[in-house]
Amino acid sequence: MKPYLLITFTLFSLLFAACGKKNDVHLGSKTEAQDEEQPLKGDSTIYGLACEGCTDSVVVLLPQDGSDPVTYNIIAAKRNGKVLGKMKVGDWIGVVLDQHNKRVARLVVDLDELQGIWCYVVMPQLRDSANIEITDSVRNIYFIPREYGFWLKRQWNAQSVGYVSEQTSLEDASPVTYPRLLFYTNWRIWNGKLIVISGDIKMNKDNSNYTIVNPRNDTCDIDYLGNDSLVLSSDGESRSYYRKDNVRDINVKARRIAEQLRQKALAETTK
């Protein structure tokens, strides 16, 4: 296997510690998970497009089946902080109804606004085996914050973000270690909750291809959704995310430091 492929698949996994609770929601096949017309088993969310007439008290939804628009009362949802995102005409939205009144929305989420690149900052930890004095110079070299996160795309696809290319030997020799990254593949909505699907990479025998094994479904409540910020919670813990416009802008400083360390290591080996 080529070295750069080994590095990529060794390090290319991604995170979601705050939403780490596994669940038994049935996600079906990969094809089903990417089919916008096929809801998850047990999902009561109504999907459609936001129509003209949406206000602070009502949302007007054009159902996916093309039937007439339906108006739902969102006064209580708004008061409870369950209108997530700022609906614009034509946005793809999801509505969860009150079980006692099918014209009242308990939760509304703007799915178009939910899509995008969401990141948060992680810091490394000193390895247990590290035997160094933590001076300011050492801290400036190794204790570099990184941005982790995920990219929620159309058709329920997801991608991990936060990868920093490093030589494996340099990473093993580093006195610090970063949190493990998960490899995200898909996302879904289930009764107004966000499900992010990840797994592990398994290479085939000749290392020419890979499959995703050990699938994991992380379910989170969407506590807040704004233009540039997202708050998710699970098991009593919450995490705030900020939006990024470009994947190339993520971990610029971390990649620069990694390259400096690589060049330094190469120089020392050629002495």
Task: Provide tags for this entry.
271 residues; alpha+beta; eight-stranded antiparallel sheet; six-stranded mixed sheet; 16 strands; elongated
Structural class by sheet pairing and helices: alpha+beta
Overall mean pLDDT: 82
Strand arrangement in the largest pleated sheet: 10-9-7-16-15-14-13-12
Oligomer: single chain
The helix-strand sequence is HHEEEHEEEHEEHEEHEEEEEEH
Number of helices: 7
The proportion of residues in beta strands is 35-45%
Q: Can you tell me the residue ranges where pLDDT is under 50 for at least 5 consecutive residues?
A: 1-24, 28-35
Question: What does the overall shape look like?
Answer: elongated
Helix content: 10-25%
Number of strands: 16
Distance between the termini: 28 Å
Description:
With 271 residues, the protein is an alpha+beta fold. It is built from seven helices and 16 strands. It has helices at residues 3-11, 30-33, 75-79, 111-114, 136-142, 168-173, 252-269, and strands at 46-50, 58-63, 70-73, 83-84, 92-98, 101-110, 116-122, 125-126, 146-152, 158-161, 176-177, 183-190, 193-203, 210-225, 229-234, 237-244. It has an eight-stranded antiparallel beta sheet with strand order 10-9-7-16-15-14-13-12. Strands 3-2-1-5-6-4 form a six-stranded mixed beta sheet. A hairpin with a 2-residue loop joins strand 12 (183-190) and strand 13. The radius of gyration is 22 Å and the shape is elongated. It starts with a helix and ends with a helix. Mean pLDDT is 82; it is low at 1-24 and 28-35.
